Amino acid sequence: MHQHGYLWTGPKERFDNEALRRPPHPDPPPAESRPELILRYREAAAEFPTSDLPPLETAYWLVKPRSLVRGTWDEAKEAAAWLGECLSEYTPRFASERDRDTRCLARVVATAAEQLHSGADVSYGFYLERPSYLSLAVVTCSPNRSHPELACPVA
Question: Model confidence at 131, in pLDDT bands (50, 70, 90)?
Answer without folding.
Answer: confident
